[in-house]
Design goal:
alpha+beta, Cyclic Phosphodiesterase, Chain: A, 4-stranded antiparallel beta sheet, globular, disordered N terminus
Length: 202
């Protein structure tokens, strides 16, 4: 099952080709991002454990919560709908523990070893908001929470790790320029309990 999840993750987040540098598509997704200190520590751990080749930069580390199909060009109408969806979400902040390092044949990621209930509630709230805005989730994607560290070929493995616990205080909407290894945050919302007011920051 773990091997199957890793293979699906690699398909959902394919690595750049050796000749990357040309814009291939526009991808929009909601995500959690670690704080800068945790992101740098995660990147340093990944480089020490896996080597530098194929790793994501600290600024691009994230846990995908929902995403749409890729677009051949920028889609302002979709972005507006996604921002409306993000503004509808109510969820409390929570601690996210990623305590399992796992690899498929093409990618390596940190994962929670056990289900994180508030993480799944947040994802469900985002998916529901997208449905209300008539935004289709990417057809071949399912939510298996993970933080991709990088891409490399090698045998699958799974092992316990420690030290990767961070507080999820906000979620973001990201515009990914596929092929350029470029992420642009185009929306951000603080996590607040459902009975508190929540507003869009960007």
């Amino acid at each position: 099952m773990e091997h199957k999840k890793n293979m699906q993750d690699a398909a959902n987040h394919p690595p750049a080709s050796p000749g990357a540098g040309a814009l291939i598509a526009h991808r929009y997704f909601f995500a959690l991002r670690p704080d800068p200190v945790t992101a740098r520590a995660t990147r340093a751990f990944a480089e020490a454990r896996l080597g530098a080749r194929g790793l994501l930069s600290a600024e691009r580390l994230h846990v995908t919560l929902a995403l749409t199909d890729d677009r051949p060009s920028d889609d302002p109408a979709l972005v507006a709908a996604l921002r409306r969806a993000g503004g509808q979400v109510r969820a409390a902040p929570f601690a996210l523990l990623l305590d399992q390092l796992s690899a498929g044949q093409r990618s390596v990621a940190l994962r929670p070893a056990r289900k994180v209930a508030p993480l799944h509630r947040l994802q469900a709230a985002i998916a529901a908001a997208m449905r209300r805005e008539a935004i289709a989730m990417r057809a071949d994607w399912q939510f298996h929470p993970h933080e991709t560290l990088g891409y490399r070929k090698g045998p699958p493995f799974t092992q316990a790790v420690t030290g990767f616990r961070w507080q999820a205080e906000a979620f973001v909407l990201v515009h990914s320029f596929v092929g350029l290894t470029r992420h642009e945050v185009i929306g951000q919302w603080p996590l607040r309990p459902p009975d508190e007011t929540q507003g869009r920051l960007l």
